[in-house]
Amino acid sequence: MAGRKRKMLPVTDAEAAIIKHKNQTDLTLNVSPAKLKNNPCETLENAQNCEAEHSHYFTNNDLHQRLEEDFFKQSCISLAKAFLGKVLVRRCADGTELRGRIVETEAYLGGEDKASHSAGGKRTERNTAMFMKPGTIYVYLIYGIYLCMNVSSEGEGAAVLLRSLEPLQGQPAMRQLRAARRREGARLLKDKELCNGPSKLCQALNIPRCFDRRNLAADPEVWLEKDPNINPAEPNDIVSAPRIGIESHGEWAKKPWRFYLRGHPCVSVVNKEAERQSVSGNVTSNLVPSEVQSHTGQHNVKKT
């Protein structure tokens, strides 16, 4: 095309990586379910061509904003809320990137929080990541077969559980990864069912046990991004509800430290009563001063 010659600007390393990613095709897996099941740390090197799928909510940005260490330096409750709307990215060995927006979290404060793995300041080989610097990944096994992904925050032994994601990119690969853990002939999962639970999201994004103790702010295979076209969730958009699966911990089971985006179809469990309380402003009635200071989301963890 004729016209004035345009000046070419130098391309930075970050821009080059973005161009490379845009030129890649979103891939799905071509690996047997048995092989995936037996090798959870195996990468997706044998993926074949598949048309890319994106969520209806997904904004395709040319410039992804990776969250760095400073973002994770927040109290547990504050970080659990700040995660909502952020994008978890899993890069596979072939360059394929799977993305999901966080829509549900749970805060585990450690110390006096009896439902936390680090209650009473107890340190074990299993929960070491909870005592590492903010932004450290904590992956643990439940029921002997399922994995859950957490991220450490400020506070002794405090961490945030990632409960649910909205699939944004790589749904074909996610669907096949989930199918590897389901019975043969099971129905096809809807997009909203791919990552709507802590173990489901680990399966869908191929988060292996060996990711435990990695730094989410610096890891080349998994990280968090901010979507510049999505505004932070407003207080009225966030529902605070009791955490799930900890009924045996008495009063601590009632603490409203599960947070999710109101009305989002990918939330694992909707709590109508908590939603009514969130609207009326009574959600903090179950928090005591030692756990939450004012309305800032800050907390003090009892040191032992």
Question: How does this structure look, described?
Answer:
The protein has helices at residues 13-23, 33-38, 69-72, 76-82, 171-179, 198-204, 272-280, and strands at residues 27-28, 48-49, 65-66, 87-91, 97-108, 137-142, 146-152, 159-169, 222-226, 238-241, 258-261. With 304 residues, it is α+β, with helices and mostly antiparallel strands. Strands 3, 4, 5, 6, 7, 8, 9, 10 and 11 form a nine-stranded antiparallel β-sheet that branches. The chain has a two-stranded antiparallel ribbon with strand order 1-2. Strand 6 (137-142) and strand 7 (146-152) form a beta hairpin. 37% of the residues are buried.
Produce a short descriptive summary.
The chain is an alpha+beta fold and 304 residues long.
